[in-house]
Amino acid sequence: MPAIHDAPWLDGRVIALVGAGGKTSLAWRITRQLLARDERVLFTTTTHCLLPAAGAFDVNVVEPRAEDALVRLGQMTWRGAFAAASIVGPFAGERAGWMPTQPLKARGFAPTDIASFLSLDARLVVEADGAQGRWIKAPGAHEPAIPARADVVFCVVCIDAIGQTLDASIAHRPEGISALTGLPMGDAINETTVARLLTADDGGRKGIPNGARAIAALTRIRSARRPELEEALLQGGFDAVLDIDLSENPGA
Hints:
The protein is an alpha/beta fold. Helices cover 19% and strands 27% of the residues. It has a single domain (4-245), classed as Rossmann fold (3-Layer(aba) Sandwich), CATH 3.40.50. The chain is globular.
């Protein structure tokens, strides 16, 4: 698979990430790669995400209204910035991942508000889905929250879920996964499950704007790569498939 920093899809102005199992880490990697190309990057969310640690970005802006956040960002000097609408409370769960974070959850802006930030001379990286720390998910009726102006959408799933039992300990909305893929609750997740989930119009591809590039991002910590799954996803309509080894923090 091509390296993230060599990929033409990073030329998108608005990059959204959906799914489960490493969205924040992948968003951080993308952000760092864009910064290494001397670009300005704003990282934000249309759902909830962990608050970045002090120093992770040049500035963290928290304003209830996107218009006010835009004004503050326009008054500051930065190359990498984070913006959210509010801090909603402490987070006591596991915070494993590449992006340095605080044990606090931040609430983002509505998808329609993201267009406000397009007036900035910056690329936008948007975490547009929630998964409650699970490895795999089916979207709810109100999900994902992809901005209409998204040029690129990364559909994330952690393939460590393969071989695990389909239940709430591994999956967010496991009943939805069962309905979309035909896998009975309590059975073991397999490659076919993942392929059917990601390629389903009401699954991984749900809500992707017309014309946006759809990229399947297969994250893993303990698993080996799955070339046959990668090929199935390419045949299923994804523009590209990325293998993301989360056990090796690139530090970039």
